[in-house]
Input
Amino acid sequence: MTERSGHAPASQRRGDCADHVPVIKGTAAGRAGIPHFTDVIELARIRACLAGGGSVLVGSFISGGPARLVDLRCIVAAAAIFMAVAAANVVNDIVDLPADAASGRSRPLSSGRISVRAGRAAAIALATGALLAAFVPGAAAGLEMAVLLTLAIAYSYVFKGTVLLGTVVVACCASFPVIYGGAIAGHVTSAIWAAAALSFLFIISYETLKTLRDREADSAAGLRTLATSAMPDSSVWLFLSCAVLLGAVAIAASVVSTMAMLYLISILPLLVLLTAATAPFVRKPPSDGAIQRSLHLLRMAWLVGLIDMLLLR
Output
């Protein structure tokens, strides 16, 4: 999703300089102690962790029914994905330390509220916990988790250096949990694939809009994204195209639902939220406030969409 510019050496962006990023005076960077709970939550991106774990349970429900929601194997798998998402987010913040410091973003690591050493220890512990937990449902689930963790961590170190490939990698990682849950609960059905497609398109839309929001900070930090490497209109059109396709796929997914009419009624709020999120971009260049509001609406749409997916069974 991001890429080095010709004027930003790798040492300004990668972990070699992570311990030398300037911090805000008086923060937790220079003192021992337990980080504040809210900083830990922010570092892990708790909403993303819950969405990942919830997606596993959604896939389990679609594949095996309500009984799978209390199946220990499915619950442990959801916990494993939760930890994997947290680990990937911590690694991403460690890699982004120089860019965050340059752009003035006050994140837990870049501000020093959590030390880099603690961040690295947390990432290792979370990744290890995710991998160990994933082997509880079976060897196949454990190996799949190993691949997912490798891809998620490689995103921060390798794929993030591309304009669009990084976004696709994030979308693949985010759409995998629903398939993971379905496979553990029984089998991957057409409804599972429909849910995964919805997840994929949502993340492409959301991540594209995020690069548009962050274009000035990314440009100041010497990072290259779609919004900084091309005209902002390119990001707008990609966002609108994916959002429209997301709505269309959400409607088309009714063909795999055994409760098609109820499902179509349930997605009406989702379609309203998508419309509200895209409307500001149709006729005029979006303001920063409009982008932020649309991101908020998309987060609401994602929550609604996870609930709607339950009716794909």
In short: The mean pLDDT is 84. The two ends are 34 Å apart (CA to CA). The CA atoms of residues 18 and 79 lie 29 Å apart.
